[in-house]
């Protein structure tokens, strides 16, 4: 919380979520160095359960920024192409990181100054980045939810 909220206060908007990701990597590495198995680590298990509940909330709030009626047909085609050709990528944590960091682009653009025409174009670009990241993450979540019952059975 300190990383995320503190980075906003000092003007480093995107560094907070990035710090959280870096800290989790360092913690995981230290646990392995201490002899913990990744699958048997009680802290990792607790966070896994925690994340199962809060991941949908994170993506729901982030996805609320998409207005379906405002999407351009070209964007829909590009996103459809990405989703179709990148079936394997949603399994990676990359989609989660993208969805968490994508709104930072829009925040940074909104902080900028310039001609109104130029700013409108930059906002459109940032919104495209957010839309692509969120749609890709939605595909990842959908795929995970489809395989969840199989994971429980095995």
Automatic annotation (TrEMBL):
Coiled coil: none annotated. Keywords: Membrane, Transmembrane, Transmembrane helix. One of its GO terms (biological process) is inorganic cation transmembrane transport. The chain crosses the membrane at residues 49-68, 75-93. PANTHER family: CATION_H+ EXCHANGER DOMAIN-CONTAINING PROTEIN, PTHR31102. Belongs to the monovalent cation:proton antiporter 1 (CPA1) transporter (TC 2.A.36) family. This is (African queen) hypothetical protein. It comes from Danaus chrysippus.
């Amino acid at each position: 919380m300190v990383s995320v909220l503190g980075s906003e206060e000092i003007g480093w908007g995107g560094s907070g979520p990035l710090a959280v990701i870096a800290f989790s990597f360092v913690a995981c590495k230290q646990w392995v160095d201490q002899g913990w198995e990744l699958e048997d680590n009680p802290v990792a298990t607790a966070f896994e359960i925690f994340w199962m509940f809060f991941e949908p909330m994170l993506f729901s709030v982030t996805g609320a920024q998409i207005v379906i009626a405002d999407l351009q047909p070209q964007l829909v085609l590009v996103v459809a192409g990405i989703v179709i050709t990148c079936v394997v990528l949603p399994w990676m944590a990359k989609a989660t990181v993208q969805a968490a960091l994508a709104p930072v682009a829009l925040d940074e653009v909104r902080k900028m100054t310039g001609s109104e025409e130029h700013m409108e174009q930059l906002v459109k670009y940032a919104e495209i980045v957010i839309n692509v990241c969120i749609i890709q993450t939605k595909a990842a979540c959908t795929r995970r939810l489809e395989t969840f019952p199989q994971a429980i059975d095995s």
